[in-house]
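Hi R.,

Here's the chain you asked about this morning:
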Amino acid sequence: MGELSLGRQEAFEIFRRDYEHNDAIEENKKSLKQRYAEAKRLGEIVNQSRSKISGYIAGVTNYRIHSIKHMLPVENGGAHVTVLT
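And the predicted structure, written out as C-alpha cells:
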C-alpha cells in the first residue's frame, strides 16, 4: 500500500477494520496459510517417497544385471548359450 497517500491509506485501514466480514476474511486467510503449509509438508513427503522408490528400482535393476552376468553358460552342440528365464 505504499502507492496510496497517507489519507487514503488511513481510510482503507479504517474500512478494513470496520468491514462487517473482516473476521471471515481474516479466518479464511489463516485457514489458507495452514492449508498451504500442510500441502507443502505433504509435497515434501511425496518427494522423499519418490526418491526412495527410485533407489529401490535402481537396486532391483542392479541386482538383475548382476544376476544375469553370473549365470552359468549351457553347452548346446559345442556352442555356449546363456539361458535367460
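The first strand starts at residue 73 and ends at 76.

Let me know if you need anything else.
M.
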